[in-house]
């Protein structure tokens, strides 16, 4: 073994020994001092870190509920360097983080928090640990855009409801805005040629590039906003320890490693496990979320189905009524509801009715809309089936002295129900498929959950394929159930 | 007093006058055969008696009550007036037994045991007891009609209306059904039978009512109606065709 190779090895062993002793000695020293940092270093207390883990790649939740991301890794590393033994991440809404610091419920706020003057009045910030702000992204093959000026006349994708929309309208009014619903759709629109550029937060853009590639950032950041970790006012000791650790990490290159893990090009291969078309891991990793979404979907479908049957029966009886005004109600119900798009009805109920003082929770609005819509079809199915029963059946029942109600209940409806089953099965298949549309009113059913997963994994192909498969299984289950029921009931045919 | 009495009964569908002023009465225990050419109004006449068709004018009174009057409990009156249809009209979604039991329980409020005992006894009389558990689709036309007669008879009606009860049957089973009707007649049931079976009209009926052109053209005992001395020209023409 050549001598020049022995020395690094020996050095590594020595360093390891040193590291093994170092925390112990620091802790002992800290205990003697008796401060908050000392207690953390001794392991007596746990560092409480508040975060809202819904913002990849800074912090997000995997399908099993574990928190991960750039902030999570960096805070753990910084804490370790500061000699802190136990770290606990506390999930909370973003808006609660600063109040929680003020109330001493947490020690650190780590959630991609911009260091704004307003916040600095309430908390103290570490040094900048990551530069944020808006930036321009274009296709990596596109060399026609170099700066904000070049966006004049270009199609620029922005996400609806974000600050990029207003900012771009003010600073580059000549750009033609393409409004996307989700973060992922915004980036994809450039890759698919539906837009020329994207203006959005620089970290989100870098994350997309790391995950998917195909885009590049052009020019400098458009706005100067930076992320810092928030500490309780006057907790100088902890804040200083973090700043020292951060500087160390910058100096020894481990900071760069962390950024590359979450924002760098290397992360692509590591995370997606190659470029296979169908990534089973995407589904497995998100199985908990998907299961929840499926349960919500089933709840929506079953309740809407019950409402649809109820309204369809009432509507059917109304249309068969001998009393003209009741017949009119049935006719109006069918012609209005069947004659307008479901989405319009859904939005009218959820967004329109509040102006009349009727504020419905999303779930209620979704179920009512879906049941109301499907019920109009069931009305016609019901009416048609009842009218298809031979007139002699009613005559036979009535000639025995049975009342109209008894004749309907015991003779006509049971026979009509059997005839209704095949078209009802079709209608409930439609209802199941339409249930995906209630995601528009923020119901976290299967389709919306799918979009959430795509925003994290960018794996639209796998997720939509899998969700499509789940819907396919559901609709086939319905067809199977109605067919079985029909066979069972059709003993007399 | 007549069990059923009809006065000035007319029935029009638009401009077409199907019944043109019918006066008719039936006494308890009588069996009346209603015969006549197709389209002459026989079935409409029968269906007006329990108001399956609403008469355009005229009155129908049954068992001392005016059926055509206002506020009359039609269901109660119908329960005392059984009806047997050409196409049986059994409820296909129920077994033969259930077909007979349901109206008894639903209308007469008989207990299940009572209704089933009654149903089984009657089904046995018509030779259908062992088929009591069968659905109508498993029964032949003759069997269906026997069950349908039992369904009507189980209500203990005061009058039974038969609307061409054998017209939809295969020739070989017609006699079975006619025999059952003859037995009912012997038991004293008041019956009004629209039929093309001249043998039945001749042997079983007390009166033959000949309906043609929406009117009762003849109302005679069968011995007179079928005799050479019946000089009604339309009845003569009809009889020449069917005999």
Description:
With 493 residues, chain A is an alpha/beta fold. Chain A contains 20 helices and 15 strands. Chain A has helices at residues 3-33, 36-42, 70-81, 97-102, 117-120, 163-171, 183-191, 202-212, 236-252, 254-263, 266-272, 280-285, 287-320, 324-338, 342-352, 362-388, 391-399, 404-434, 446-457, 460-489, and strands at 47-51, 54-55, 59-61, 67-68, 87-91, 108-109, 124-125, 130-131, 134-139, 155-159, 176-180, 197-201, 215-218, 226-227, 230-231. Chain A has a five-stranded mixed β-sheet with strand order 5-1-6-15-7. In chain A, strands 11-10-12-9-13 form a five-stranded mixed β-sheet, with helices on both faces. In chain A, strand 10, helix 6 (163-171) and strand 11 form a beta-alpha-beta unit. By secondary structure, chain B is an alpha/beta fold. Chain B is 37% helix and 25% strand. Chain B has helices spanning 42-49, 74-79, 96-108, 112-125, 141-153, 171-186, 198-203, 222-225, 233-242, and strands at residues 4-13, 16-26, 31-35, 57-62, 65-66, 81-84, 159-163, 190-194, 207-212, 215-220. A six-stranded mixed β-sheet of chain B has the order 6-7-8-3-9-10, sandwiched between helices. In chain B, strands 2-1-4-5 form a four-stranded antiparallel β-sheet, covered by helices on one side. Chain B is globular. The model of chain B has no long low-confidence stretch (mean pLDDT 93). Chains A and B meet through helix 17 and helix 18 of A and helix 2, strand 6, helix 3 and helix 5 of B. Chain A: Residues 1-29 form the signal peptide. Chain A: The chain crosses the membrane at residues 290-311, 332-351, 363-382, 460-480. Chain A: Its main location: membrane.
**Relative helix content of chain A:** 55-70%
In angstroms, what is the radius of gyration of chain A? 31 Å
- Tally the helices of chain B: what do you get? 9
Shape assignment of chain A: elongated
Shape of chain B: globular
Distance between the termini of chain B: 35 Å
* Strand arrangement in the largest pleated sheet of chain A: 5-1-6-15-7
Major sheet strand order of chain B:
6-7-8-3-9-10
| Percent of residues in β-strands of chain B | 15-25%
What is the SS-derived class of chain B? Answer: alpha/beta
The N- and C-terminal alpha carbons of chain A lie at a distance of: 92 Å
The run of helices and strands of chain B is EEEHEEHEHHHEHEHEEHH
Number of helices of chain A: 20
> What's the pLDDT, averaged over the residues of chain A?
86
What structural category characterises the helix and strand content of chain A? alpha/beta
